[in-house]
Amino acid sequence: MAEVPTAAIAATGLLGGYAVARWTKKRPLGGVALAVAGAVAAKGWQEKAGNATAAALGGAYVAAFAWSHPLAKKIGAWPSVCAVAGGVALASWVAVDRRK
């Protein structure tokens, strides 16, 4: 079975977390989706590239979540979430996934 790239997992976590929170109107449920995907991505980062890379990308994941909020005030919610998800996905691909 083909392995899912960590970039896709991280982007899905950010996009999915927001989507779950928005559509269920339960922010904590969106946070669960965000956290689960982040944990899965972090495990992949650590296994494929080591602790330092996993820590850096984990920090980027959390920072992207945080930055999506003020960015949403400027460009809108979905564009903001898409932008930060794309940024984290790109960082994950460059640091981990393209090594294959």
Structural class: mainly alpha
Report helical residue fraction: over 70%
The pLDDT mean sits at 96
What's the β-strand tally?
0
Which residues sit in consecutive blocks of at least 5 with pLDDT less than 50? none
The proportion of strand residues reads: under 5%
The main β sheet shows up as: none
Give the SSE string: HHHH
Can you walk through the features of this model?
It is a single chain. With 100 residues, the protein is mainly α. 86% of the residues lie in helices and 0% in strands. The chain has 4 helices and no strands. The protein has helices at residues 6-24, 27-49, 51-75, 77-95. α1 (6-24) runs antiparallel to α2 (27-49), α2 (27-49) runs antiparallel to α3 and α3 runs antiparallel to α4 (77-95). It is globular and about 35 Å long. It starts with 5 loop residues before the first helix and ends in a 5-residue tail after the last helix. The mean pLDDT is 96.
